[in-house]
Specification:
Structural class: alpha/beta
Order of helices and strands: HEEEEHHEHEE
Helix content: 25-40%
Low-confidence stretches: none
Largest sheet: 5 strands, mixed
Radius of gyration: 28 Å
Number of domains: 2
Mean pLDDT: 81
Strand order of the largest sheet: 4-3-2-5-6
Distance between the termini: 86 Å
């Protein structure tokens, strides 16, 4: 009489295990995609402990948006007379430049530059620097909403 050994085939178990891992991976990727989705708002937080306080300005190539009021100024009006030595204008952006310049080393203008404004941002930057105002800038995705918060 011959003894037969019972054998187990592990391939069905491994197949079930691989399907389970694939489902868990799909759930994890979905959760990450939902948390980083296009509806996320980029928020600028202004902290009061720095030596200079930024004034946030958005540039998209055709207009300037001044935060936190979200005042919109068309580019041709905002940049009018800025190329002249010390020249400014009566727009909200011109008034902002005067305020920031008069504050000395206490404030500066921080630009959020949209991709649609890359082609002419160097001109805007030159105008503002020529006026004698400190400037910072950062690229921002074209359709990403922006927010502003003070601490």
């Amino acid at each position: 009489m011959r003894k037969t050994l019972a054998s187990f085939d592990l391939f069905p178990f491994l197949g079930i295990l691989m399907c389970l891992l694939a489902c868990l991976l799909l759930i994890m990727i979905t959760m990450v995609a939902m948390s980083v989705g296009p509806c996320i708002t980029e928020i600028w937080v202004v902290e009061g402990n720095s030596t200079k306080m930024p004034t946030m300005v958005e540039w998209n190539g055709t207009e300037i948006v001044i935060y936190p009021e979200k005042t919109i100024v068309p580019a041709n009006i905002a940049l009018e007379n800025l190329d002249e030595e010390g020249g400014t204008n009566d727009s909200a952006f011109g008034e902002l430049l005067v305020e920031v310049k008069e504050s000395g080393d206490e404030r500066y203008i921080y630009f959020a530059v949209r991709p649609s404004g890359f082609h002419n941002f160097t001109d805007v930057l030159a105008y503002v620097k020529n006026y004698g105002v400190s400037v910072g800038y950062e690229p921002v995705e074209q359709n990403r909403p922006l927010g502003y918060a003070e601490e």
